[in-house]
Fold these 4 entries.
Entry 1:
Amino acid sequence: MSTGDPTLISPAARDALQIWLDGLGALEGAADNTRTAYRGDVADFLAFMSLHFGGPQGLGALSQITTADMRAWMASSRNAGTGARSLARKLSAVKKFYGWLAKREGFEPTAVLSTRSPKFQKKLPRPLDKDAARAMIDTVELQSQQDWVAARDVAVVTLLYGCGLRISEALGLLGKDAPLPATLRIKGKGGKERIVPVLPAAQQAVNRYLKLCPHPQEASLPLFRGVRGGGLHARMIQGVVADARRQLGLPATATPHAMRHSFATHLLEAGGDLRAIQELLGHASLSTTQAYTAVDTAHLMEVYARSHPKA
């Protein structure tokens, strides 16, 4: 449940939050979605503190928050139905904001920054096996009666599986990116750029879509277009994949993002280097990529047995 009513937050706190968010975008290249999530999380926290203390809190009062106040916020969030994973995300946003605010206002933020994140079981990626991934692409093509729409959907899903793109990255391609070259420069989360090889199958899928698409391609417009000519929305691809998933009898975890997980897992199974896969996925930390090792422990043990001198 969100409590981030702006009327509960003091003008000074609202202004500070906006300045922080603007700085994240301008200086750190934080994506719009990231800043929107941070805004909601921190606003909820500030609104709770206003209710907790009986009125909107200025910056001076916010600098006096104690460990007990933090516990009260976390307990209230859990009672409202916030899961441990979501609460950990909210706490992370609050800590980032408070670290910045403490430097700006010159106060000691230890009570906030030392608050322990709730423990939760990390969800492992749920990739499709190779046959299911291929079947997904084949079945996606059958979901539309319009040939160009079917070709478009196949092209997008092929980019997710063949290049490991996030759906936002695939739909962020512009007309100037076509025809797709052998490598793409992709700007991912936090403005981090990476070079991604483009398989011939992905190039061919995009070329087929371009030949059939009735909307003229322009350099500055989205490469993938909706039926009316505007940019294609992620929910359309999510719906197409969901329909294909149901036809194939695949679990609910078979989402567009699962195609990206499948890309990474199948590279690992083929002997791909974990550090190289990290670069291809655009993960800032190797620990994020290491989740795939838990998916494919059997393969790693096989590589160990075959390669280690003492095996």
Note: The first helix runs from residue 11 to 28.
Entry 2:
Amino acid sequence: MASPTTPGAGRPRQPSLSQLRAFAAVAEHLHFREAAAEIGMSQPALSGAVSALEDALGVQLLERTTRKVLLSPAGERVAARARTVMEAVGDLMEEAEAARAPFTGVLRLGVIPTCAPYLLPAVLNLVHGTYPDLDLQVHEEQTASLLDGLAHGRLDLLLLAVPLGVAGVTELPLFDEDFVLVAPKDHWLGGRGDIPREALRELDLLLLDEGHCLRDQALDICREAGREDGAAVTTSAAGLSTLVQLVAGGMGVTLLPRTALRVETGRNEELTTGYFDDPAPSRRIALAMRAGAARQREFEEFAAALREALRPLPVRIAA
């Protein structure tokens, strides 16, 4: 690596985007093999790009040992700048692509697990029928991971429950949907259409695991109904399908969004459903994008088209 005293070293040379991209990947993973895999570069090429960046800048960015890779103090500072540069370049490419032709190229859509199986058919039909040149890539993840992906440019648009209350994120509401009580077939609340929320205070409630926004929403509903925070809640399922099977086995009751009801309970004779008295507990589903996204108008048009595509579902479409 060149040092400040090397003849001709003087002022740092202009680094290339390839060098910055390689270093940003190494700085994130602190592992050459993982970084190379993420950006589709061979390890020798990656190592060469980082070394070239060190030469260009005249500073040591990494401390390499036989077991691990560490960022030097200079590397910590440069890594933050490199990430900013790469995000700006991504925005530039996105803006150019959007200006060239809307609804073409790649759209990386993140979806929460409690929406994906029930809403994706409408999304896919819309894309195939109306936007055939759009390369839709779907990523099913929990809310926190989706927001991280949106913030770092890994995802373009999210389909999830709101409000998020996150700075720098713009929400495009799609619809509101009620929650329905799902219980074993002989349960005393089965078949009712006027269940008071207060009934949730003493029920054996089954919920999703930590990290699912639907779990947090259900707990909020229970607190509003007067259920004590210390009341027993069995958490045994990573997905709604498993949750419903536990209910069918008599282990308790659960809350399902209306869009999931037909898929999850339609063929199970061991289950019954009950509907809450007005106003029923509900959730709002929206698309979310980065505030000021280059493709904002495109995403707004997509949201409007998706609202129309979702009208046949048992939901209240947002104005």
Note: The CA atoms of residues 200 and 222 lie 6 Å apart.
Entry 3:
Amino acid sequence: MWLNVSNVDLPAREQFPFWAELVSRELAPLTLSSPNTGSFPAWASVLDLSSVRVAAFNSPPAHLKRTWADIRRADPGTYQLTFVSGTPLWINQRRQDSGLVCGDMVLFDLSHPFEGAVPDRGRHTQVVIMQVPREELPLPPDKVHRLLAQPLSTRSGMGAILARFLTTLDAYGPDCHPRDLSRLGAMALDLAGACLAQHLDAYDDLPAETRQQAMLARVNAFIDHNLGDPDLGPTDIAAHHHISVRSLHALFRQQGETVAASIRRRRLERCHADLTDPRMRQRPISAIAARWGFLRPADFSRAFRAAYGVTPRELRQAALRGLPMRNGLR
């Protein structure tokens, strides 16, 4: 589960020292400084995914520096893959400078000195940091070092999938069973490896299993983006990803459901969300069904009842009256 920490209940003069100590403890020994030490309200969340850790930080602008002396005190041997939002961040490491990064990711290595800062633009910076053990990343260190302190795009491809994965952990991670967190850690490691390999043009260096998991993540992202297409099916999905239909079905056997079942489940989940959303109460049920690829109302109603035990209309009426209804598929 997430470990949530904040300093907002402390006296203003104690907020920055508390935060500086927290960052050094959760990342590694470093020096944090800021002109806003009089009041420094900040929040952090940390989630352990077996060997991988994910930490989300929300804080005012600050400057951070890690030296060789800090590294001698403690070297966790991890890369920090950081998704940046809010105010931009820059990182300088091994004579490489990221420039201002916002909306993308940047990588740095805690085994080497680095310096970074967030310019004061009157807003908090928000980062989600994935801490990856160097020995578990399936790429040679000399290649990975080319990417240190370089902006890594999250606009498309594996970068977009990894960024979405990291930012949704905050919403869904707390509900996961411990054994699921371990699986999420393995998935995070595969996505990180595929993302960095894509930026290095070194995809073939990845183990076959990592490439398979990366392909599965790409396919799942494609399905989610195209659920409204009533013609979405295995043939088109396979063609878009330049694999055979047989290979696509083999990928989905790892998930324990067929391609068609996965599409149907996700469409029903989107319909369920819309039917219980007060903002959608004026939209006809048939329009909601069509929005997510169900063109025949009778077919939609049967599938919905089979999944949730109630008709779409019954669910909507109960939601509008504030009655509790089951939220998951049977």
Note: The first strand starts at residue 3 and ends at 6.
Entry 4:
Amino acid sequence: MATFDDVDLGDHICWHADSAATSPADVLAYVADGALYGDKIVVVGSTGAASGLARDDVPSASVILDFPRVADPDSVLAAVRREARTAAREGYRSVRVLTERVPAAALSGTEELVAQELKLDEFASENNAIVVCAFRPSQWDAPTLEHVACVHPHEMGIRAVHPAFRMYSTGADSWSVDGVIDSECADAFNTAARAAIRRSSKVKMRFDALDMIDAAGMHALVDAARHLPDRRIVVEGANETVRLCWELAGYATAGVPVVMAA
């Protein structure tokens, strides 16, 4: 995604906020477009940090959820959901969420951070909302940013690298996976799958747009399902090559908690 002008309803964007490709004026335009299209602006965190917005630049009808740097992520998401419901009652088209992600809010590690992003993606998909998550690359290590990028359908910023695969919400406990999953990104896929399966005993994954998954990727998927007891992943839409490789690897058995559905 080149600029904020390209955002649309339902989008969840990973914004590399250090990038010189995006200026405070671009962010102001994003906010102004909210008023133009009838969206309510919800800023999570102090203004003026990653966004470059001064508090006076935010329209009076907007909401600023000024949580501390270390806050319960579920409480933050619950507050955003409340604002979305309020916006609907007030006649807004949707909500435009702008949130800065900081390392201090991810003390439990990368998997917890990815789980939070999956929840935000599910929120954007279910509520037809726009969610922009600002990450300063100077504050994060490269592997963490790689993991995070894989669970955003879109990214912005001059240093934003297109991930090998993406995993994004297609409904409650349902995720679409596209691209290629190989040994280089198997760890990121394992983290994303583990983050999804921890939220529900049964998760559906759509492989319609997945081009290829190698042995490392298949092992990552099975390992994620086995990470917690009584978990099950149902894969739908896999192409014939993926299905054949799955059978040849010996995973098409009753003892494997991943089912490659017909």
Note: The CA atoms of residues 7 and 130 lie 7 Å apart.
